[in-house]
Amino acid sequence: MGQNSSKPPPSSTQHVFTSDSPVNFSPDLINALQASPETDSTRSKDLELHIQQRVHSELARLDTEHSKRLAELREQISASPDSTIESVHPDARTPDQSISSGGVDHKAAAEGDKLRELSRQSVQKEIDMLKEKLKRRKLKEEVFQDKAIEKARGDIIKCLRLNDRRPLDCWREVETFKDEVGRLEKDFLGKVMD
Questions:
Q1: Angle, nearest 10°, between helix axes 103-136 and 40-88?
Q2: pLDDT of 49-85, one tens digit each?
Q3: With b meaning 16 or more CB within 10 Å and e meaning fewer, what string describes 38-70?
Q4: Is the pTM of this model over 0.70?
Q5: Cα four-point dihedral sign 57, 60, 62, 64
Q6: What's the CA dihedral at 13, 14, 15, 17 to 10 degrees?
């Protein structure tokens, strides 16, 4: 039984394919294919190398385009602060001020500080409003003050500690907890909707 191997012995490096219909190739084609040192693996490596080169060249092209665009945008931004200040505050540059004296740059910095202060104040005002809304909603305290939910929560914890290797045995406690949470949600929605 074990005398014959399951694989046929390697006869040669040539592959012979047989087909149901006769296939005729010219001898020149057969000679060219046999003389070619190229194999499937070298073809796939060449293809992979070609794809990598194309991807690399495309990435380089995109990188140069983005660099040019970034340079253009930086030029526009560096040119725009003076025009922005003049359009917002026409009296920001007086005739006796020169750019080299730093008067406009100082004014621009002061305007930027003023805008930052305004935005900081508005953000702080928004935060205070949200804090007030949260103080009005004492949802978390209501949840922890509800005795039925606390009892159901405690039952789940106790069951999980007892059945630490079989947590699925605590399905009754989980269902009780879900029912209590659903009851609390209905009560909450009833208060909000009224």
A1: 100
A2: 999 999 999 999 999 999 999 888 888 888 765 544 4
A3: eeeeeeeeeeeeeeeeeeeeeeeeeeeeeeeee
A4: no
A5: negative
A6: -160
- Please list the helix, strand and coil fractions of the chain in percent, rounded to the nearest 5, in that order: 75, 0, 25
Distance CA 174, CA 162 (A): 14
Both tokens assigned to 167? 């947590």
Which of 193, 180, 103, 118 lies closest to 149, judged by CA? 180
pLDDT digits (tens, 9 = 90+) for 18-48: 777 777 888 888 888 788 777 778 888 888 9
Length of the chain as a residue count = 194
Alpha-carbon Rg for the chain in angstroms: 39
- Per the CB < 8 A criterion, the answer to whether 187 and 181 are in contact is no
Phi, psi of 82 (to 5 degrees): -65, -40
Q: What's the CA gap between 149 and 180, in Å, rounded?
A: 6
